[in-house]
């Protein structure tokens, strides 16, 4: 790098989110994001391949879930181990609820980002599945446990960032546990 | 149309699937698909905006699920109604297992098609959610029931098209019911 850039990556991510929210994704270029973040366009492309990737870099949610599943107690059922993975993923976001809420709104309103978010979900399911298999869980059970846990994570995430949830201020992990219990009751 | 083209759309869909399987998605153009199907490229673009959409046109899975949820008995629980929607979706594929199996393999191996397939899943969840809301189911319950039903559908689908399932020859609808029971037991 030509000069020291403290947290250039984080600044570009915040800048991108602001610009996408203010003027829309289509109306924002990589150059706009770089300018708002106070870096050159060249620096932008050293960190990200394109503007779509900016909001998806640097949060290895699938790895956190994978490691969380492996770290669950030995006696945990596949479902419990999968939920432990979801809570490990939730921990990455716990302190950043406002950012996560704004990001969720921007993603929901922007088809290319929604597609990318779905890929991220699929990667979370795959990582959870792999970790359950490593624990010795059979293929069909691991598949179902991973899919349903990520379903609980996604529904729980939307509840956690929902503005109407402001008063309650439950932690994301608590909401995941409550959502899993609701799903159990529902079925 | 310049001349009568019996089932041109179906022929193009089969041609696309064959070509994607034989030489890969990237190596297949809209013109190749038209040629194999015996139609002009102009005809291709009258039916589809691009080659990515060919395998996703003409199967209104989300509508079938929506209508299936609404057609469930009045006393059905939200979970039961959502599963009725999944079985209505399954009915669209029941007679086309070989096509569905080949299509699933091609989609899984082709990132742009995988992304598109995830969007289709999201549309199925949204349609199921809307139908449950129309039935008077509350927002959080409808959300969870729709997400978990589509999870059961997707896991059930992979089991149904799995080559190792050939001997059993269970119907897709039966596999959905069995998968839902397994999920219940798992939780």
UniProtKB/TrEMBL annotation, chains A, B:
Does Transcription regulation appear among the keywords? Answer: yes
Keywords in alphabetical order: DNA-binding, Transcription, Transcription regulation
> Which residue ranges does the record assign to the HTH tetR-type domain?
6-66
Q: Superkingdom, according to UniProt? A: Bacteria
Q: Which Pfam families match?
A: TetR_N
Gene3D superfamilies from the xrefs? Tetracycline Repressor, domain 2
> What Gene Ontology molecular function terms does this protein carry?
DNA-binding transcription factor activity; transcription cis-regulatory region binding
Note the DNA-binding span(s) on this chain. 29-48
Transcription regulation found in the keyword field: yes
Mind telling me what this protein is named?
Answer: TetR/AcrR family transcriptional regulator
